[in-house]
């Protein structure tokens, strides 16, 4: 799991609310993420699962390869803490794959548990949008026509 290292910033982090954060080379489990956010105080869980689709930019996709910067776990933890601070979050989990993925593989899962569904939807949307915008994870796409493309690189 993405644990902060000594002396690393943990802006807004509430460790009993942030239940699971990770970057993994192994397949992701929707059940694991869902189970992580279950709580008696939760009235709604919003779960987002991002998968590798078979096309992008009008071309067929054969596979993706995700890479991450060594700072990615720190940024993920900061961003999760900010989400907890901004919304009435009871529980939060987020995992992202790195390495080679095939079409149909799960690339990312985020889940947020809140007392009410509207809060859960808003917090989940914020969480996935911020993860995609800020966490330094880069996607290398391979296309059916032999072309390749890097997405999200600095």
Task: Give a brief outline of the structure.
It contains three helices and nine strands, in the order E-H-E-E-E-H-E-E-E-H-E-E. The chain is of the alpha+beta class and 154 residues long.
3D structure, described in words:
The structure is a single chain. This protein is 27% helix and 39% strand. The chain is α+β, with helices and mostly antiparallel strands and 154 residues long. Strand 3 and strand 4 form a beta hairpin. Helix 2 packs antiparallel against helix 3 (117-134). The radius of gyration is 16 Å and the shape is elongated. The two termini are 25 Å apart. Residues 1-14 have low confidence and may be disordered.
Question: Topology of this protein?
Answer:
Blueprint: E1 18-24, H1 30-37, E2 44-51, E3 55-56, E4 59-68, H2 72-86, E5 89-97, E6 99-102, E7 106-114, H3 117-134, E8 137-143, E9 148-151
Parallel strand pairs: 1-5
Antiparallel strand pairs: 2-7, 3-4, 4-6, 4-8, 5-7, 8-9
Helix pairs in contact: 2-3
Unreliable runs, pLDDT <50, ≥5 residues? 1-14
Q: Give the number of helices.
A: 3
Strand pairing plus helix content: what structural class?
alpha+beta
Question: What string, H for helix and E for strand, traces the elements in order?
Answer: EHEEEHEEEHEE
Helical content (DSSP H or I, runs of 4+): 25-40%
